[in-house]
Amino acid sequence: MRLVLVGPPGAGKGTQAVRMAERLDVPHISTGDLFRANLKNETELGLEAKRYMDAGDLVPDEVTVAMVRDRLGDPDTEKGFILDGFPRNVAQAGSLGEILADKGLALDAVVQFEVDDEAVVQRLLGRGRSDDNEDTIRNRQQVYRDETAPLLEHYADQLVVVDAMGEVEEITDRVFAALGKG
Ligand code: AMP
Fold first, then answer.
1. What's the first-to-final CA gap in the chain, in angstroms?
2. pTM over 0.85, yes/no
3. Nearest-CA neighbor of 85 among 153, 25, 22, 16?
4. Residue 122's pLDDT band (boundaries 50, 70, 90)?
5. Atom in ligand 1 nearest the alpha carbon of residue 84
6. Mutate to test the pocket of ligand 1, among 29, 35, 121, 141 (most ligand atoms within 8 A of CB)
7. Strand locations in 67-128 (E)
8. CA of 120 to the centre of ligand 1 (A)
């Protein structure tokens, strides 16, 4: 299966993506994780991404799309993939569409994680990541509303909406049920 996960910061996409990837036996591709790995290894890409990540802003599309195109060229993605945190705006969605179309492929579904904004701020503050201070979190939420939420309309035909408040196991069950694989 080729899936995209969309939801505001702290919606639990990463947690669910890991569980879904295991069950579907496809790679979990998180652009946030890829950027953080680059940052840790002090690559040029990581150093370029850092200031955007620190502010909670989107890393420029050019950089992000090139990184994803590269990753989707790896043979392990031939059996499918779960994209977590990409695309983050309509332009990135267009680029993803082109990358897949070049391979004669399309997405199977876009899973939208629905959560209560205020409830997740507390969850994020407890996570301890360096970009998880309150100002950055609020900015990431604003960026989500302004840039990422319009994706939901872009993907209206493929959208599968899941209530993402509750226990981890319960939410995984909801996702697979919504995908018709319950
Ligand atoms: P995440 O782990 O998905 O919360 O991403 C952490 C940070 O990485 C974001 O706040 C952005 O700065 C950057 N990032 C992750 N994915 C993308 C993307 N698709 N486009 C631009 N920036 C991204």
1. 15
2. yes
3. 16
4. confident
5. 3
6. 35
7. 81-84, 109-114
8. 17
